[in-house]
Write a structure and sequence with these properties.
218 residues, mainly alpha, Growth Hormone, Chain: A, 2 domains
Length: 218
């Protein structure tokens, strides 16, 4: 499974909303100007959701977290198909769904080192990347067809089901041990490590290049 399945489908709906070319999904007209700018912020969870990820090391297993966040992403994606007439609600639910997809990806990714042997890391990594890209493409094509042809309510159920279907494979992966650390400990350690990393020369240069590129963009 790819760690961005929900994000992939969310991007499809956003594209259709911007184009305004799928009446059954987005209603009348497209989006422009400030509305476009507001929708662009949908991608923001890709940048800030990692700040919430330490919670994945608290109390419950990675499988439990993966299933919960996959379900949240699926529900948000389905609900988005019914909210395209309300841009604010559409963007809010879409952002929440994308954040949940990021959390799902981190739960799944953090789980794998517990069940994969060191000598298999490279093979599993390569196979996972190929499968992730392939599944994203297939899912995107199928989601576009569903959005364009099915009624909104049916589209919501179908897309949500498409997101949840691959999670059935999680039940065939050995369950990792439940974490024993508390919320305060994991977040304290995380932000302490993050602060140390951000002070390094390479990190500061990377942030400078990123900000320069963003400021130079029209």
């Amino acid at each position: 499974m790819g760690d961005g399945i929900g994000d992939c489908a969310a991007g499809i709906l956003l594209r259709l909303h911007l184009d305004g070319d799928a009446d059954s999904a987005v209603g009348k007209g497209g989006v422009g100007g400030r509305d476009f700018e507001r929708l662009v912020y949908r991608i923001s969870p890709s940048f800030w959701a990692f700040l919430l990820c330490p919670i994945l090391d608290v109390r419950f297993s990675k499988r439990a977290y993966a299933l919960v966040f996959a379900a949240i992403s699926a529900v948000c994606l389905g609900v988005c198909t019914l909210l395209t007439g309300n841009l604010t609600a559409f963007t809010t639910v879409l952002t929440a769904g994308c954040a949940a997809a990021v959390m799902f990806g981190n739960a799944h990714g953090g789980w794998m080192p517990d069940v994969i042997r060191d000598q298999h890391y490279s093979q599993v990594g390569g196979t996972s990347n190929i499968a992730n890209l392939g599944a994203a493409g297939a899912f995107a094509a199928l989601a576009i067809w569903v959005v364009r042809t099915a009624p909104p309510t049916m589209t919501a159920w179908l897309l949500a089901s498409m997101v949840m279907a691959p999670t059935m494979m999680l039940f065939f992966i050995p369950v990792p041990a439940k974490p024993t650390r508390g919320v305060r400990e994991v977040f304290t350690n995380f932000f302490s490590d993050l602060y140390r990393v951000c002070k390094t020369r390479n990190c500061l240069l990377g942030l400078l290049c990123f900000l320069s590129q963003r400021l130079a963009s029209p």
